[in-house]
Amino acid sequence: MRIGEIAALVGVTPRAVRHYHHLGLLPEPVRRSNGYREYSIREAVLLARIRRLTELGLGLDEVRDVLADDEARELVEVLEELDEDLGRQEAVIRERRARLATLLAEARAGRLAAEGPVSPEFTRLLAGLGEVPDSPMAVQDREHLAFLDAVVPEEKRGSLMATLHGMREHAGEVYGLLDSLADEEPDDPRVARAAAALAALLPDHLAVHFPDKGSGGLADAIFADLAPAQSAAVRRAMELVAERQEGPS
To answer: In angstroms, rounded to a whole number, what is the distance separating the alpha carbons of residues 99 and 91?
Structure first.
């Protein structure tokens, strides 16, 4: 058989056959006097085995290990590893499909966030927010929430979103106060009023979730997005929450 014939017989491409030769998986057959390869049934059987192993999901290095073991003990071990790996992949796929089902339900109900896809916790938080108020700070706050949803570790995200959920419906006044500080300096007297209003809205344990400014990463990214006076107000609000937690000295 010529290379095209054995490839068609086994169900692979001539290019694949040449690749297997190059990798040493399939020995080069005897060549005729005209230089063409002459394949026998023995090469066809071996090529078919390579094809079956790759269809099972084995990499070519693993196929080489299997073929090198005449007693097929290595084959059992590799197939067991492959089965375990497929089991892990199935678990991941099931989790992703469950997540997709939630997103599809939200989309079909017209409740999928513009920031989506987002976590189920953030989806529930947005559902409680209702329409975004006509406030630049409200829009910016929603962007910050989407950012937190993307970067906060999963084990902390649920607690954080649950903490934020109860405070959003009364945020209108605070948004207005922070909007008024957009073009002001940190020493503006309205900073204290905005900080007090925000602190009154924040749950006591929110400070646990919020990193210090200057610690790098998350906090710095959020504060950098605020105007100087707004940043000062938010920072002071967090300090007031911390002082409230400590109680009277």
So the answer is: 12
Q: Looking at 12, 38, 68, which one is the last position of a domain? A: 68
In terms of pTM, does the model score above 0.70? Answer: no
Give the CATH number of the domain where residue 9 resides. 1.10.1660.10
Q: What is the pLDDT of residues 67-110, one digit of tens each?
A: 876 555 566 776 777 678 778 888 888 887 887 777 677 667 66
Cα torsion 176, 202, 222, 143 to 10°: value is: -60
The DSSP secondary structure of 142-171, one letter per residue, reads HHHHHHHHHHS-HHHHHHHHHHHHTTGGG-
Place of tokens 């002459």: 38
Give the largest Cα separation in the chain, rounded: 100
Q: Do residue 51 and residue 81 come from a single domain?
A: no
